[in-house]
Amino acid sequence: MRLRSGLLIGLFGLVVVLLGGWYFTIAIALLTYIALLEFFRMAEFTGIKPATKTTLFSCFIITIATYLEVIGFLDREIYNSILPICSVGICTWLLLQPKSGTISDIAASIFGLFYLGFLPSYWIKLRAIQSTINNSSNGILSFENISNSTGLYLTLISCLLIVASDIGSYFIGKSFGERALSPLSPSKTIEGLIGGIICSISVATFFAFLLSWQNPFLIGILYGILVSLMALVGDLIESMMKRDAKIKDSGTFLPGHGGILDRIDSYIFTPSVIYYIIIILRFFN
Are 250 and 235 in contact (CB under 8 A)? Predict the structure, then answer.
């Protein structure tokens, strides 16, 4: 059952990334909707009462607005106003409740908006990148020969690097792991972390050569390390929340895999970092 669920998850992810557009956007909205429900469930286990419905609606609006902005339908200034407006709306909703909210209620609601609304929306931005990568041969880290499919390649490769990092961490950690990495996740080891980074670098370097990027070894090393570390941060953040809520899994949506948040935690912090590094490299090239 676990293997079947894993294969279905992977196939679903591959299909929606390849399709892109509204298919990819709706998939992100659906996954983050379920994950946010699981996050709020964890919060409620600790006695917090977040603005669940208002935050769910706000996250949906951010996801849809992100796609409308990247295709040019929505003005950038209007798009940039959505996050603060949604934050004000969530706080206002908590103020109007019969029993006034607490600092924890506000913090959990706004964090939910950022964690599972704003950050995942960068997958849509990353997938939509087309000709924004500098194609000049003068730059040390420019990405050549992929301007027409940049977003597709970067999205697929980033996802594959996360998978490679997870696989490397698991098998190397299981075989050679001795030193614990963090009390938040006792099964993770320093040896596993190193194994995950090596696997991620190997896959990144392979694709850097395959796609004829300049300085493939340098790009492969930096890309692989970055994605592996961001995946680890995402995983440990969710482990910290589950530890606080005193639960093993965020939910039971996926047989053998726990909840949706358990599956996507490694994918939450990655896209925004990759996206802005690309923007910075474009600026300096």
Answer: no
Query: What CA–CA distances, in Å, run from 96 to 58, 100, 132?
Result: 17, 7, 44
User: Is the CB of residue 2 less than 8 Å from the CB of residue 255?
Assistant: yes
Mean pLDDT of the chain: 86
pLDDT score recorded for residue 137: 43
* Beta strand ranges found along the chain (DSSP E): 180-182, 185-189
For residue 240, the tally of other CB atoms under 10 A from its CB is 14
More confident residue, 83 or 148: 83
Q: Are 250 and 104 within 8 A, CB to CB?
A: no
Domain boundaries, the chain: 1-128, 132-285
DSSP string covering 229-269: HHHHHHHHHHHHHHHHHT-SSS-SSBTTTB-HHHHHGGGSS
